[in-house]
Fold this sequence. Notes:
Immunoglobulin-like; single chain; 39% strand; Cadherin_C; 5 helices; mainly beta; rod-shaped
Amino acid sequence: MESGRVRKQRQVLILFLLSGVAQAGWGLRRYFVMEETESGSFVADLAKDLELGIGELAARGARVASEDNEPRLQLDLQTGKLILNEKLDREQLCGPTEPCVMHFQVLLNKPLEVFRAELLVGDINDHSPEFSEREMILKILENSPPGTVFPLKKAQDLDVGNNNVQNYNIGSNSHFHISTIKRGDGRKYPELVLDKELDHEEQSEFRLTLTALDGGSPPRSGTTQIRVLVLDVNDNAPQFEQILYEVQVPENSPIGSLVVKVSARDLDAGANGQITYSLFYSSQEIGKTFELNSLSGEIRLIKILDFETISSYELDIEASDGGGLSGKCSVSIKVLDVNDNSPELTISSFTSPIPENSPETEVALFRTRDRDSGENGRTVCSIQDDVPFTLKPSVENFYRLVTEGALDRETRAQYNITITVTDLGTPRLKTEHSIIILVSDVNDNTPTFTQTSYTLLVRENNQPALHIGSVGATDRDSGTNAQITYSLLPSQDPHLPLASLVSINADNGQLFALRSLDFEALQAFEFHVGATDHGSPALSSQALVRVVVLDDNDNSPFVLYPMQNASAPCTELVPRAAEQGYLVTKVVAVDGDVFVVVRLCRRRRATPLGVYSVPEGHFPGHLVDVSGTGTLSQSYQYEVCLKGDSESNEFRFLKPIFPNILTQDSGRKLEDIPTLQNNLGN
């Protein structure tokens, strides 16, 4: 696109759906499979669910597309069954999220239909509970009353639901028992409950084994050691300024950013009043994302946040003094979405080349997605305005790229389409994807001759197989559609033996005379030639060819009058009183060729009676009385010669009997009198 040019774009809101494309009666189908099921296992009979025949699935190009474009599912077009393409790990797919749902679509062509479905991946008890520490140290004042509760760090179990941690217990002892507490997030936490008063002097330390049990069958378990230190009395525990801290952090905050600062105070003095901060109930993800300064209470980022992965965090902070007392608070961190994800575009199907005569043809089917939320996740989709294609929205963020009308390969054989997906966030982010569409040729152009008619000149008596000329045609199509074969069309004159006169080279249009032509028999003839391409159906055109035969002087003249025999000359009597202009005779001759030339041959002979002359130049066809008496003084005989136009053939009659004479004006010898065509005067 030229620089500075404002490119018009047709925009389609990504949320706009064409509900008519989806199967109305299908709805959303849900299927279930347990994790770690072997690859190749049966999931669903899609042919039955879609109410389609096995052959129809293959004919309509059925295929499965998942949200993350991973080929975890495979559709067997021969059986119509949906099978697993790999083992599924629920913990890898969904982490702690329950239920674990994998969205996918079944795509059909001709016409386009999109069926939405979900695969629920069930959890198996393949993970045991694990504590983050092999030993927990708990400091308890000796004056703590019975019933005092001491929260403990919970065990982690990657399984979910009933396969997660369900219960805690400790071995038999005289002072403590374990209570299992279920918090708002559904997870269960252990608390150590004091059953009997402590006495530092009697027993300053207890060692307990804490066991976490999940609800699997059979259940799995994990253990850690609890070391309880009984302390002398420290009567003031640290207290936080707030029991709950609520903060919001943009997801694009840089590493090292201050999230929040918690603060606690202790009324005791000395070591009993010195406070240190620590994370309590810290998960592995929290430990990788946040860092708590144990002295200042500042919580800073040590990992970039990602709203699309985790949108909120819950932290428990413990403040402990030097005497072993502690206080707790909670920090709720909400991650704010920023427009940091460019839209994504995935091509599901693409067809190229496409026939030029195919309007409303689907070229590509693609899906768009933006991982941001709200306006940051809303997108518009467009292509450039100067191409004969349009975008049509489908369902579930699918779009169809179709032709607006029939294309013309001869005008343009290739299109570079740029699909632009732009979100509505600030600043706006966009993704561009280019596809090259080739236009295949259709036989829609007739061969065109370089001339509508051709005139070829051929001299008679030619050699057989003589190349007499050529015709030529062009075809704007390509490939076999542009390959041309030339032919002679049947003659409209039933008496013209065209097949024996000329032939044509079918490949290059060269014309040949098959035999020697005779001007006297055939002076000209016409016929039509055809040019046919190799398309299907084949197209053709025709042109007129006129062949003109040029005459050769290949026939001798024949005198019709005056009549003569082989030996005696013809004699004409002229009255003595013949005046000037008197017609002596006429010569009539014929020739098979075009022109007949009659030439009066003259000879010189001396005579005592005087001199006669015949004027130079055009011979007037009369004799002249040179003596001026008005009469001819003697008889004369002339030889009349008939010649063809080329002067190569000559027919003579009358032997010359001429006196030697001189010219009237100069006395020079007379040469042959100039030629007269077709007559000898009147």
